[in-house]
Amino acid sequence: MLDQDPIETKEWLEALASVIREEGAERAAYLLRQVLGFASKNGINMGGERTTPYVNTIPPEAEPAFPGDEEIEERIKALLRWNAIAMVLRANKTSSELGGHLATYASAATLYETGFNHFFHGANDNHGGDLLFIQGHASPGIYARAFLEGRITEEQLDNFRQEVDGKGISSYPHPWLMPEFWQFPTVSMGLGPIQAIYQARFLKYLENRELAKTDGRKVWAFCGDGEMDEPESIGAITVASREKLDNLIFVINCNLQRLDGPVRGNSKIVQELEGLFQGAGWNIIKVIWDRNWDPLLAQDSKGLLRQQMMDTIDGEYQNIAAKNGSYFREEFFGKNPELKSLVAHLSDEELKALKRGGHDIKKVYAAYAAAVKHKGQPTVILIKTVKGFGLGEVGEAQNITHQLKKLSYENLIAYRDRFKLPISDEEMQKIPFYRPPKDSPEMQYIQAKRKALGGYLPSRRTQSKSYNVPKLEAFDALLKGSGDREISTTMAFVRFINVVVKDKEIGKYVVPIIPDESRTFGMEGMFRQLGIYSWEGQKYRPVDADQVMPYHEDKKGQILQEGLNEAGAFCSWMAAGTSYSISNVPMIPFYIYYSMFGYQRVGDLVWAAGDMQARGFVLGATAGRTTLAGEGLQHQDGHNLLMFAFVPNCIAYDPTYNYELAVIMQDGLRRMYKEQENIFYYITLMNENYLHPEMPKGAEEGIIKGMYLLKPASAKAKQKIQLLGSGTILREVIAAAELLEKDFGIGADIWSVTSFSELRREALDVERYNQLHPTQKAKESYVTTCLKDRPGPVVAATDYIRLNADQIRAFVPQKYVVLGTDGYGRSDTRAQLRHFFEVNKYYIAVAALKALADQGDLPAAKVTEAIKKYKIDPEKPSPVTV
Ligand SMILES: Cc1ncc(C[n+]2csc(CCOP(=O)(O)OP(=O)(O)O)c2C)c(N)n1
User: Fold this and answer.
1) Could you report the per-residue pLDDT of 361-384, keeping only the tens digit for each?
2) Which of ligand 1's atoms lies nearest the C-alpha of 107?
3) Is the pLDDT assigned to residue 515 strictly greater than 70?
4) Which of 290, 422, 482, 638 could pair with 355 in a Cys bridge, judged by C-beta atoms 3.0 to 4.6 Å apart?
5) pLDDT digit string (tens) for 146-196?
6) Which residues, in sequence order, are bridge partners of residue 532?
7) Does any ligand 1 atom lie closer than 6 A to the CB of residue 259?
């Protein structure tokens, strides 16, 4: 940049040089930090400079007037803290197995209460409601508030963490377990912050696409400072600033402590996070000191106090917080005689009353008030607190405080006295909950505040609008077969989604979500047709503007092209999939990606999606270990199908034919968007091209249940066998049946298994029923009914590890042999890979013959004959063991 006024620059530099000369480098550094802090406060982006002094961002003179009744709020907070503690202690009296946490809420009470009393909007006719991501371990305090609000009973509090008999409340925020209460599962560290970013963005998406009014709604994400070490916590923060998500507020509770000890003993976590978020372009507000420090800072004309604040590292701050006032005097102020004299007029008790900012309602209020007003950037509020605040010497800032679950009677009495709780010595023996009468000022205050803010929080909408979804006939082109055109199920999916996006009722609610790329999947036609969502539209002329399918970004774009960002893209899917609950607008997300980078990559988010009842489709393209032939070990997926099916409300399918895909997806639309079932779908898609037959009459029910007879064995065959196949390997199964008939005169019933996991779930339920109703007529599982009267052993082959087909083993009445793709992938042709993993038609035929031989229906020599005939090397190394 040009120096517009060299004389002025020279004067500034000379001034600095004289300070260095006369007063030393330290003083010069101090002055510079002051200048930079001032610059930052005045909106000057300093590029390289990342931190400001270790004091509150908002100076006392800039704080707004506090609109609440501080005294009453302190009394309410004392009750909440107490009930939260009582919950945990009482649960642990019932059984020490139950656990619970005291210290997190103790540190964060002011952070939540300031929000509940003054900022968090409930959902009602005029406001869509704010979104709250609450630190999982703070749940006792949130329950304690709901108890005072009259939303949770004493019996429920007493059954904290005892949910099995239906009376209790869950350990942490779990929408699955408390569907009308919790919105977001957060306790797995890092999932809250990243989800919050994408929920905030999705609110903007809805607004920009004119599907909902979301203006004015805020997303509040409460996180721990320890939690910020999770890559998920910080991995997407630039998305928030790039997209100017001023509806997003991170509140980071910097109690300086994680599980075993300090988050950053040797430095300062607040400063580190400030630097990080500064670099990412966020608005930053630090709340470090309470109001008792203000007069001292005002007198700190030489900056000695500020310097000491900066020089003290977090490990030492923890020591100071845990020890008494005289330690504070000696170890903090005593570092410099002049500094010590600054507090000479204060007693040790008064020194101890100099607190961290997060325990001062007014300071926290000022920060929140500034955050909600801020435009054009997301805000992060870094608030310093004491972990275990109020728990005295057993808990405050102690390394063991996170695990603290028991307090002695004496501790409780001390706690009562400190927070002036109206509980007698005698009553205290029972650790009673305390709720003041309904007409008490505290209870009235709470209710009035929530009423003014539109209703209670957290609170979750369980159902929304139902849509009429297209009937199966709408997908006729897929049901009819592909004629003589060889196509892949991925192409069939694109045809399916094209029908859905054109549907008058539900088309606009479709959200195609793409991490990585979609061109490979043949979806580029949608770029122009639907547009790629971009909050700022398209400011450039795309290089392919003259072509039929240009890259088209649009403020109203429907597609979310997320780039190389599976975790973020999955959070978008979760936001769209929960939009029915969050915004009363059911959205229909389709997330399509390379299946290997699926559950394996973002599994914890998938689990959370199940918990929060996200609805939608996840399409694992290039699925199976042998379909993405050339890509090798890192890309070949033989297990994500199974892993998705581990999630209890995920319905997983591995279809082979277009009509199977259409039946499954149409049924999914019906179940999720008409019936509003709390399920989601994982469906494999293949990139292998082949012919697709017309749907056999009446196959729909079997397709959905998990298996149907695709082709019966020839009636002429004297010996018969059952062959099961899924995905692309079904085609090898069909080829194996031809070999068996041609070469050995054995007939095979061919079953297409669309979902081993759905077959297993149904069979497990039947088995359980029979176990518990021993004298009643036994029920039969669907898979057993299909196979029990069929001749011959059963052989199954899939493109997944053997555990996939093994899922139904207990329910197959006959001998059951399973082939699969266990072991690491390789790059080679599909034919070679199927040979390598021993799932091609020859291996299937040999497995079938051996099964017949094992049960005495065929001489073993016939199997040897087949091995020779099909040129199988019996000494080939196994792909299974490595
Ligand atoms: C992914 C994950 N790893 C580990 C844990 C176990 N855990 C529970 S609380 C906690 C530390 C919390 O520290 P911090 O984020 O600083 O929150 P605080 O309770 O101190 O406010 C950890 C590691 C978890 N819940 N999730």
Assistant:
1) 999 999 999 999 999 999 999 999
2) 21
3) yes
4) 290
5) 999 999 999 999 998 988 888 889 999 999 999 999 999 999 999 999 999
6) 553, 559
7) yes
| CA-angle at 208, arms to 202 and 212, nearest 5° | 70
In this model, does residue 524 exceed pLDDT 90?
A: no
**CA–CA separation, 320 vs 233, rounded Å?**
29
Please give the distance, rounded to the nearest whole angstrom, from the Cα atom of residue 121 to the centre of ligand 1: 27
State in Å: Cα 259 to ligand 1 middle: 7
pLDDT digits (tens, 9 = 90+) for 63-111: 999 999 999 999 999 999 999 999 989 888 888 888 788 889 999 999 9
Q: Which atom of ligand 1 is nearest to the CA of 225?
A: 16
Structure tokens at 60: 């006392």
List Cα–Cα distances, 282 to 52, 199, 217, 249, 285, in angstroms. 14, 17, 19, 10, 10
What confidence score (pLDDT) does residue 96 get? Answer: 83
Query: Which ligand 1 atom is the nearest neighbour of the CA of 253?
Result: 21
* 224 touches ligand 1 (CB under 6 Å): yes
If we measure between CA atoms, which residue out of 272, 312, 302 comes closest to residue 30?
302
Q: Which of 568, 528, 580, 535 is nearest to 549 (CA)?
A: 528
The 10 Å Cβ neighbour count of residue 753 is 31
pLDDT score for 48: 57
Give the pLDDT confidence score for residue 49 in this predicted structure.
Answer: 59
DSSP 308-326: HHHHS-HHHHHHHHHS-HH
512 - beta bridge partners?
Answer: 590
C-alpha closest to that of 141 among 342, 313, 385, 410: 385
Instruction: Pick the residue whose CA is nearest to atom 12 on ligand 1.
Output: 258
Q: Give the chain's count of helices (H) and strands (E).
A: 36, 18
**pLDDT category of residue 651 using cuts at 50, 70 and 90:** very high
Cα 800 to ligand 1 centre (Å): 35
- What is the best residue among 110, 111, 135, 137 to mutate for testing ligand 1's pocket, by most ligand atoms within 8 Å of CB? 137
pLDDT for 46 equals 63
Mean pLDDT along residues 316-330? 95
Name 810's Cβ contacts closer than 8 Å, sequence gap at least 6. Answer: 763, 767
Q: Which residues contact 147 (CB under 8 A, 6 or more apart)?
A: 83, 153, 154, 156, 157, 433, 435
CA nearest ligand 1 atom 25, residue: 188
Q: Which two tokens stand for residue 188?
A: 């797995």
Nearest in space to 233 (alpha carbons), one of 252, 247, 219, 216:
252
**Helix, strand, coil shares, percent, the chain, to 5:** 45, 10, 40
Ligand 1, pocket-test mutation among 189, 359, 387, most atoms within 8 A of CB: 189
Which residue has tokens 């339920």?
Answer: 765
pLDDT of 410 > 70? The answer is: yes
Size (the chain), residues: 882
Report the pLDDT value the prediction gives residue 674, as an integer from 0 to 100: 98
What dihedral angle (degrees, nearest 10) is formed by the CA atoms of 226, 232, 235, 239?
-110
Provide the 8-state DSSP code for 674: I
Number of Cβ atoms within 10 Å of the Cβ of 428: 15
Residues 6+ apart with CB under 8 A from 540: none
Place of tokens 């004297």: 718
Determine what percent of the chain is predicted with pLDDT higher than 70: 99
What atom of ligand 1 comes closest to residue 138's alpha carbon? 19
pLDDT in tens, 868-882: 999 999 999 999 987
What residue spans of 612-755 are helical by DSSP H?
640-645, 658-669, 700-705, 729-744
